Amino acid sequence: MTQATSQSGSISLAARLRKARTSLRPPPRLDLVEWADTYRRVSPKNSATPGRWRTALQPAALGPMRAVTDPSVFIVTVVAATQVLKSELLMNTAFYFIHLDPSPILFVQPSQKAAESFSKERFQPTVAETPVLRELIKAPKARGSENTITHKDYPGGSLDFVGSESPTDLASRPKRVILCDEINKYPASAGKEGDPLLLAEERASTYKDVRRHKFVRVCSPTVKDACRITGEYEKSDRRQCFVACPHCEHEQTLAWAQVRWVKVLADGSETFDPPPNAEVVYHKAETAVITCRECGEPWTETERREALRALEHRSDYGWRQTARFTCCGEEQTPETWDDEGRSRCGHCGERSAFDGHAGFHVSKLLSARHRLADVVREFVNARKDPEALRKWTNTGLAETWEHQAGEGMDGSHLINRAEPYGPDDLPDAVRVITGFCDVQGDRLEVQLVGWGQDEEAWPFLYEVISLDPAEPQAWRELDALRARVFTTSEGRKIRIAAFGVDVGGLNHAAQAVAYCRRRRGQRVFATIGRGGKYPIWPMRSSRSKANDKIWLMGVDAAKDAIYARLKIEPLAHPEDGSAPKPHPGLIHFPMHDSFGPDYFEQLTAERREVRRRLGQQVVVWITPKGKRNEALDTFVGCLAVRKALPQRIERGLEYGVGTPTDEPVAPRPAYVPPAHVVEAARAAPEPTRPEQPQTRRPAQAPRRSGWLSPRR
After folding, report:
1. Which tens digit of pLDDT belongs to each residue from 443-473?
2. What domains, with CATH codes, occur in the chain?
């Protein structure tokens, strides 16, 4: 053996020994914030600012992320506005345990489709961008990989993406880390097995016995008393973020009541605080400020962001427990805290008891990614529409929308809002018309609604076809009604753009489905209403046993929207006789006999109640015994079918939803070429086709079929 060979062998052995020592070295002791800042990379598919992750860019995330890896915390509940930190918190948690503390993980989404989409669009691109994760999690198509879209193997554990509606996926294998996204969208029961959240977290029962489990739940709130995420937050230590005033350094939580901006009044004056009855003609959202609770000084947008950035340098990141506790024989509200944000007894100074459940509330006022002016602008656009205001309250302020138990509406005053319009004199703001038929045992009840910009509505026809739906004549009369042409005040002709038929009742379902089947190409939809947390109109249809398309309408969401819009008061008509301004969401009513007291009693017959179902509080709509609600049901159907059309209804004519006139379109005149073009064409020689060489295919002997050949 030569000296060079011996030397190279010793170097190779030394390198292998160093690698072995490195592989046996325990993982670094990092919390989730340190891990993400060190290893996480952001994919350009999911962010406008890809590259290295920096938690400090969203200071409100520091507290929840630190809590995940706090040894004393076992459950983390986050009530947050949209696009603030929810999904990123869940992904960072999963990545941390995959890399530094390998464990079996369950990632629960509201549906299996949502779970698959999250895995493909959010999880896998991040893995591909982050080197330490790319080495541990093989791509589904990589050689030797057994990974799929919803199942990821890695050394020491595996991760499964599941939907909350599947009891089998929720209760099959033990998991240590349970990550639950958008828990308010979970069904009340996974099949017949019970609460999906409890089913999922029961998977960690063996880890709970030794206090090694981690549960993280995130969601935006919904309706008070029926909001799952808020109910879980109330069970926690209810941490709130305290931000120091840039002027007096008073530490305080941020609330919407502190936000102010300049309003321009009708007389041209500008003020932060207009008189109660003053008419505001313009809101200057770009002037928005936050006023200090202590000194009253306004914080500019720059000062707000600086105050949020300062949270990074505080030991508790600004997060403090606010849940009441009992100590020294007295129930107390926290007033003093230690360096970690844990509340202390006002008498003995000891820490309050803590059961390991940390809760966080994060609104957009705490978000460094959202400008305060944009939050104000969202509010200004939503303030006149109760439905939009509710959504802004849930997704912007991360607060619940409060409905009174047993809330209903007295519709007797709505008849006083009647306006002089009808089928042959519709307001010119109407762009499309939708209709709906409610199938009863002895009749068909039909309502037509005209829609304008931002779903301003003009119901204008309510007709009862008093024939048994078992008779073909009833459906022929419905066809005749659908074929009618209606006219606006300026002479524009409009036909019905889309029509829905209720096929889910006990009466004449077969006839209703057959009617829709034969008119499938005419935008006639077979529909069934379903209660619960479903969108007003589904993304795609379902199939019946006979393979007919059925569209499942979310009637609870539609009734929420209609009742909210009925509370919108109409604006006064301009004194100069000009057309009234568009009023988003407003529902008008016509002066017509079919829109009398009975119509409005039916329209407002139902009431909203909070009831307990399968251990959870849910909001349900109740029709009092003896009352009819066909006017509400048909209006719900008209709204749902409207959602099936393009949202830009002001461009309805381009989509063929309306037609401006019934007059035949004159044919375009034939093209007549100029005289000099005709003369030049006559003078040009006739084009000749070049000769092609004649080729003959060689003769082929006829082929005999093999089955005619004699057997050998």
Report:
1. 999 999 999 988 899 999 999 999 999 999 9
2. 21-237 (3.40.50.300), 411-570+582-655 (3.30.420.240)
